[in-house]
C-alpha cells in the first residue's frame, strides 16, 4: 500500500501539522482497522490496536447509515466528550485519519489542519 518513503512523509506531515499543534493522538488506519501509523504527544496510554479496530467499525456503521438515507457517504465524523474529542476524516477510498484533541483546541482549527493533512497525504499517494 505505502512504501517507506511515503510513510516517512506521512509521519512528518502528521507530526508537523497536528501533533505539534497540540493534538493528543493521531491514528491513520485502513478500513479494516489496521493501523498504518500513529502518533501522540508523549502522554498517551491509548491502546492503538483496539482503538483502530473500533474506529473502523464505527466508520463502517456510519457509512451504512449514510447509504440507508440515500447519501453515498459521510466522509467526516466527530465525537465530542467532556475532556477530549475525536475527529474522523476519510483520506482515500481505503483509509481514515483519526485525530483526538483536548477541549482547549477548537474543532474549526482541527478541521482546517486535518484538511491540509488529507490533501498532502493524497498528494503523496498519487506521486
From TrEMBL:
A Pfam entry, by short name: Robl_LC7
Q: Name one GO molecular function term.
A: guanyl-nucleotide exchange factor activity
Q: Which residues form the Roadblock/LAMTOR2 domain?
A: 10-101
Annotated GO biological process: positive regulation of TOR signaling
* Gene3D superfamilies (alphabetical): Dynein light chain 2a, cytoplasmic
**What is the recorded name of this protein?**
Roadblock/LC7 domain-containing protein
Q: Which organism is it from?
A: Desulfobacter latus
